[in-house]
Specification:
2 copies of one chain form a homodimer. Chain A folds into 2 domains: 64 residues, Orthogonal Bundle (Arc Repressor Mutant, subunit A); 53 residues. Chain A has 129 residues and is mainly alpha-helical. The interface between A and B is large, with 43 and 43 residues. Chain B binds a DNA duplex (30 and 30 nucleotides) through helix 1 and helix 3.
Chain lengths: 129, 129
DNA sequence: AACTGTCAACGACGGACGTCGTAGATGCCC
DNA sequence: GGGCATCTACGACGTCCGTCGTTGACAGTT
């Protein structure tokens, strides 16, 4: 439990809901998932997932009330960093610039995105010196 | 089989070997994995993986000789793009700039890497206009 | 021809994952 | 208090993944 393992696909989908809505009940997560997701998962499936995630330390559970409330244990940024680091090591030989190169090659790297990226790069450089 | 599924962790490790060495026998892949990897996988494990990957269309097999020769079916860049796209959608809401932001926040984004990234950005912009 | 080594093929197995059904506890309403 | 809804807990199941042992074919050696 010191460092929770990386979330699986289904677990990550749940974490996204928790990051967006904040601490939520199983029901709220389930309904939000139903709205967003194309796939249709049952209530008990979401419950089971959240129980597993509690076990793994991915979420924290408040059981003071009869209806438990779940909250993401790690921030979205932290989780994104961990996941990207993992993929970077496994598929890009640990090269950040290769990752950026691939990100740029995607259609969704729109004009606004490019401007945003350039701003990030400037900030990063300024902070670095 | 038109579009092969995404490689799993173990499969990706094998693909990395094939990209580096070019078309190779099971033995060569196995030995290369033994050198690089900390983990120690058996010969038949690598064989089985490669057989599965042939089934999935991730690699192509030349059986003209008794000792088969395997080759990656998709380029490294293409695979990297698919994998990054998937993670981008699942964890970053499809935002390329978020991915770049996280990539920059990593220790390994060294000075040379930053210069490389800036060059990529310039090229991309020049090509875009 | 017998032995030895290498190779592909196949089957099995344990674990993780996502799925859900069912049971049991708790709360609410008439 | 009886009945209904809601919630958690538990167990099961099918699938995929990575792992490996075993078997049988083939080739080279003596």
């Amino acid at each position: 439990m010191p460092v929770p393992p990386q979330p699986t696909r289904a677990e990550l989908a749940i974490l996204r809901v928790l990051w967006q809505l904040g601490p939520s009940t199983v029901r709220r997560v389930h309904e939000s998932l139903r709205d967003t997701q194309d796939k249709d998962t049952g209530y008990t499936t979401v419950l089971k997932l959240l129980q597993n995630m509690t076990e793994k330390g991915l979420v924290q559970r408040d059981e003071s009330e009869r209806t438990h409330v779940y909250e993401a244990a790690l921030s979205q940024k932290r989780t994104q960093r961990d996941l990207l680091r993992d993929l970077m090591d496994r598929a890009f030989g640990g090269s950040a610039s290769s990752v950026v190169a691939q990100a740029l090659s995607m259609k969704r790297a729109s004009a606004e995105e490019l401007a945003e990226i350039r701003k990030l790069l400037d900030e990063h450089e300024r902070r670095g010196k």
